[in-house]
Design a protein that fits this description.
Helix content: 10-25%
Shape: elongated
Strand content: 25-35%
Length: 238
C-alpha cells in the first residue's frame, strides 16, 4: 500500500510522476478480509440462527452420543459433538469464513441420515447459504491446500474478491495453492431436492501467489484422488 506519510505534496507529486514514467508505480497488496474476523464463540449463535432460517429446522441436535441414541422422528442441526477430535480445526475454519452444520434426521427407529450444510461469511460479516451436499469436492477446511480446476486454462488471481478486481497473476490448471480464508459474495438458494443453485465466493490464497481466486475453480487437494477435478467440474455444473 502507498505510504500515507507525506513530507510535502510537491515531493509526493514528483515521486509519483517519476514512478509512472519508469513503470514502477507501487501496487497495493491483495485485499485481506480476515483481519477482523469474529471469534468462533461469538459467531456460533449467528451460524445456528442462519442455518435454522435457511432450512426451516428449529431444533439443535444434542451434543452427546447417549442423547442422540434416544432421538426418534426428529430432524435437527448438528453444530457440536462431544469429544469431536476435529473441534479445533472446525473452529479455525469458522474463524476463516466457513461454517459446517450437519443436517440430521433420525427416523422412528432411531436410524440416522443426513448431509452437510455449508455457510459462508459475507463481506459484511454475516452468514449465508453456500451449498449443501452429502458428497462434494469443494474446499471446506481452512487453512488447507487446494487444487486448481479451471478446465485446462490458467486461473486469474485478483487483488480483491471480485471479478473486476485488478489482475495480479495467473495460476496453471492443476496447480496446488495454499488457501487461507473464504468470503461468500454470491449466496446460493436452498431450493429443491438438491438445494441448488449453490453459492459462489472467493478464496484468499497465500501461495504460489498472494491474492484472491474464484472459489468455484478450487477443489480440495487430494493426491490420492487424481480425478478430483473431473468430479469437481461435474458437481459444479449441477
Amino acid at each position: 500500500m502507498m505510504a500515507e506519510r507525506r513530507r510535502s505534496q510537491w515531493v509526493m507529486a514528483v515521486a509519483l510522476a517519476l514512478a509512472a514514467v519508469a513503470g514502477l508505480m507501487p501496487r497495493r497488496p491483495p485485499m485481506r478480509l480476515d483481519a477482523q474476523a469474529p471469534e468462533p464463540e461469538s459467531d456460533m449463535a449467528a451460524v445456528v440462527a442462519t442455518a435454522m432460517h435457511i432450512t426451516g429446522v428449529t431444533q439443535v441436535c444434542p451434543a452427546t452420543v447417549e442423547e442422540r441414541l434416544q432421538l426418534r422422528s426428529v430432524q435437527c442441526l448438528q453444530v457440536d459433538i462431544e469429544g469431536d477430535p476435529r473441534a479445533a480445526e472446525r473452529r479455525e475454519t469458522l474463524r476463516r469464513g466457513i461454517a459446517i452444520v450437519g443436517e440430521s434426521y433420525f427416523d422412528e427407529q432411531g436410524l440416522f441420515s443426513g448431509g452437510a450444510l455449508m455457510l459462508g461469511r459475507a463481506p459484511d460479516g454475516g452468514w449465508d447459504y453456500w451449498f449443501a451436499a452429502q458428497q462434494y469436492s469443494r474446499l471446506t477446511e481452512l487453512p488447507h491446500d487446494g487444487t486448481i480446476c479451471a478446465g485446462g486454462e490458467p486461473l486469474n488471481v485478483r487483488m480483491g474478491p471480485a471479478a473486476d478486481g485488478p489482475l495480479i497473476g495467473r495460476i496453471d490448471d492443476g496447480a496446488t495453492v495454499q488457501v487461507e480464508t473464504f468470503v461468500l459474495t454470491e449466496p446460493g438458494r436452498y431450493e429443491g431436492e438438491y438445494h441448488r443453485p449453490w453459492g459462489q465466493g472467493w478464496f484468499h490464497i497465500s501461495s504460489p501467489v498472494d491474492g484472491w481466486v474464484a472459489s468455484r475453480y478450487v477443489a480440495t487437494a487430494a493426491p490420492e484422488w487424481p480425478q478430483v477435478c473431473a468430479f469437481h467440474d461435474v458437481a459444479e455444473q449441477g
